[in-house]
Please model this.
Amino acid sequence: MKTLTHFDKDGQARMVDISTKSDTIREAVAKCLVHMKPETFRMIQGKEISKGDVLGVARTAGIMSAKKTHDLIPMCHSINITGVDITFHPVREKSCIEIEAAVKTVGRTGVEMDALVTVSVTALTIYDMCKSVDKDMTITDICIIKKSGGKSGTYTRWQK
Amino acid sequence: MKTLTHFDKDGQARMVDISTKSDTIREAVAKCLVHMKPETFRMIQGKEISKGDVLGVARTAGIMSAKKTHDLIPMCHSINITGVDITFHPVREKSCIEIEAAVKTVGRTGVEMDALVTVSVTALTIYDMCKSVDKDMTITDICIIKKSGGKSGTYTRWQK
Amino acid sequence: MKTLTHFDKDGQARMVDISTKSDTIREAVAKCLVHMKPETFRMIQGKEISKGDVLGVARTAGIMSAKKTHDLIPMCHSINITGVDITFHPVREKSCIEIEAAVKTVGRTGVEMDALVTVSVTALTIYDMCKSVDKDMTITDICIIKKSGGKSGTYTRWQK
Amino acid sequence: MKTLTHFDKDGQARMVDISTKSDTIREAVAKCLVHMKPETFRMIQGKEISKGDVLGVARTAGIMSAKKTHDLIPMCHSINITGVDITFHPVREKSCIEIEAAVKTVGRTGVEMDALVTVSVTALTIYDMCKSVDKDMTITDICIIKKSGGKSGTYTRWQK
Amino acid sequence: MKTLTHFDKDGQARMVDISTKSDTIREAVAKCLVHMKPETFRMIQGKEISKGDVLGVARTAGIMSAKKTHDLIPMCHSINITGVDITFHPVREKSCIEIEAAVKTVGRTGVEMDALVTVSVTALTIYDMCKSVDKDMTITDICIIKKSGGKSGTYTRWQK
Amino acid sequence: MKTLTHFDKDGQARMVDISTKSDTIREAVAKCLVHMKPETFRMIQGKEISKGDVLGVARTAGIMSAKKTHDLIPMCHSINITGVDITFHPVREKSCIEIEAAVKTVGRTGVEMDALVTVSVTALTIYDMCKSVDKDMTITDICIIKKSGGKSGTYTRWQK
Model:
């Protein structure tokens, strides 16, 4: 039976001991959606006409946040991330932007949380950059879509 | 016409000058939902039988994250938060937990981003604490439901 | 009857709302003792003969830590500290160093925790700088000896 | 003769070069005591009657602080901690709580400082959570009780 | 006679007490130059042909760094910055980029250090983004060119 | 042809994937100059007459900043630094202080940025400690003078 590994047998929180786990290449891919008004969507896409690069700032914020994961999530181990890639997929008909982040490490534990933090902070930065024109934006579908490496092997979400 | 205030007229990002704005009491309330398997939901709710207090850890992480908002979101001003309250509403029939965070400050700028960061990190911590039993959890509906204070006055989302 | 103000009536942790409290000058003085071997004590005192300035490094670390208090202590408000003074009182006959830190702010809440963090990190840095020669060092008597300002007024510890 | 390794031969502080040391499993166990009034002790112990979980918040703060050690202690190397366990031993007759923290890493340097920071911040958080009812609390006996791993081998304090 | 205010009369470092100073609008403008090879200069300027936005990333890093000043410079007070503007002046004939940062606050102390940190981190980020093609880049002329506000009034550098 | 590796083929910023690079000992040496008035230079040098140890504080700040490099420079990997040495070379006839920082790691990527951040923050701290007597100080010549380790091998600046 599966258990909540972040608690010991008495229900006390702990940072799980991973000292004897092996260093392997591990990757996690997370995604989320940022929904907005069509007008906001057009403003973000229109950066070529010098309206400002919302997604550029958000990408930088997202990459920096990956390195702060252990400082945000209490039981996360601090790890040395070896790569972060953030991709934006604008979906004009739904007036939303899909964010996908792939995070890699060579270490003793996975990077699911780092990928989730990355997409979240990227999305939140989009919100911040656009909130003067659209306070109704909503962030949805934050989830892990794939992870690989480590003893538990590869996981793929049943539906993207 | 509304503009993206985080960019100047040449489209360059900047931290907006709020030097001449007034100190007022400002509050923002954000929410989000964490969807999970019924089994995971039961584990979280069952803390009374010493399975560990997932929501307690998440709440602490959320409150601490409110104070890191300016360090995560590039154009956010650093402010002194004067209060943070996090409430959990477990929705058994949907097997999800609603998180609501109310953040307050007395200052020259609002705390929408701080409230959004708070619910996001709270939700991500729930994910982290439970990911050993449920990797399919999804975080949705991150949004501002209310804000008050400041020149722009009160905002209430059209639907909660 | 006094209550634990960091919890609401349901026992949930929160950052207490101080929005309506007044800005006043507030000060807190904390102290602690670092006990060590006589040989270690002499090494620290002997900085004039180019053994290295243990207390200088510890003082800098302590002052910097005061500014991190809200990042270490979950329910602490982030405040703008307006002054930090650290004094060392070497007590040769007991082979120990007393550390005293006075922290000031102008704000809505006190700086007891900031003063306590300051003496603690100062003491821990002394430990770190000397641990290659003395692993038995012990830090004791961390406490608040005085605080002033704010609605609750002045507090003085019954014995120093 | 032992020397203060954090200084070079001219007495200048440095972060000691550990490039050629070996990666080994290292552990350190630190402890401290938090003394309080009997009434405060009872409040902390009485969490079952919804007074709020002081020790739960303190434990989370302690675990998070372990990951900040290199940011607090100037000459400490940044390392990847592989495990943190915090145990509370309430001592009713003395009205005090003993905190013990075991920290592990696989690396080139020990984790004594990380264990000491962990118990210190855990204790300081207890102080913060209870200071509205008891400003006289005192933290004592911060020390290393055991460490293992690395070239210098195992150390055990002469008396606990 | 002027003295080093960051030391007390015994030569001990301290965070200067500013509790009784007045809140006024304060601004500081700093600048620096980043010298590079003509080829590197062309790459940075050529962002319109999708080579990547070096200056956009550097600007975001610079703005974020302003908020970290008190965490980098030991005796700096933590303050709430109310505005940051970064301007780039490319000087083609000298193959260098001039960076100018204007930082504002409403507070008890000036923001010279914050402006200096901003231009420094902006310049260092340009170095990082381009070091794969040009390791010889050099950063020069970091200085304050103007400051205003506070008791000491306005300062203008004798030559820009 | 060399490219800006921090951007992908579409010009999007990323944290470069170093997962398959080898762990080797890597070192980088950076330097810079801090120019000041002769009077300021004498004050700094005169620490023996209890004017306060400007360079001691600056050295501590510099060493601590090396550990923050990944938090300041967006695309930098977080790494575990294994050693930092800072040397000051006062040049009386030019009334300037040369700062040299040697940073080491055992890892998958170099430490040029860490060495550059170290000399920059060391220099900025000197500025801060002395700005009450000399606002005209200027920091120049921030550059890498040597790096070794890794696939790209050793680099030495054409002129120091």
